[in-house]
Amino acid sequence: MAGAEAACIFCQIANKSTSATLLHTDEKVIAFQDINPSAVRHYLVIPLEHIPTVKNLERRTEDYSLVSHMLEVGQTLLRRDAPQCTQYRFGFHQPPLNSVNHLHLHCLALPYMPRWKCVKFLSVGSLGFLEAEKLLEKLKPLPPIISKV
């Protein structure tokens, strides 16, 4: 690892340089429990590649596919581990409110615990918590323009 990635705790987890227990691993992402959970179940899904924040994602197939895959992994884990829950939230904190500069999807099986932690996950304009589905809408590639000749 080089520079910022070497100091990034999530890059260290992705490279298995820590004792974090992984809930899922594949060629694109890994998932693990949040060390300071805010809900009955609170998992993080991160890309293996160091991507600092949602602001570094673009409207292109690769980024859309990555976020979609992250969401699918999170949904599968919560359905497996918290089937009794009826409400789930999936999303990203946006700068300057993100705690770690490595893209990470919060996967929450509600209720919040303790209840006041819901404040961290409010959607308030461009500074709040960005729901995964809203991010996918922003990243969805535009259809190709077909010119008639």
UniProtKB/TrEMBL annotation:
Alphabetized InterPro entries for the sequence: Histidine_triad_HIT, HIT-like, HIT-like_sf
Gene3D superfamilies: HIT-like
The keyword Mitochondrion is assigned to this record: no
GO terms, molecular function: adenylylsulfatase activity; nucleotide binding
Active site: H106
Motif (Histidine triad motif): 102-106
Domain of life the protein comes from: Eukaryota
Location of the HIT domain: 9-121
Keyword annotations of the record: Hydrolase, Nucleotide-binding
One Pfam family, short name: DcpS_C
Protein name stated in the entry: HIT domain-containing protein
Source species of the chain: Castanea mollissima (Chinese chestnut)
Lineage summary: Eukaryota, Viridiplantae, Streptophyta, Embryophyta, Tracheophyta
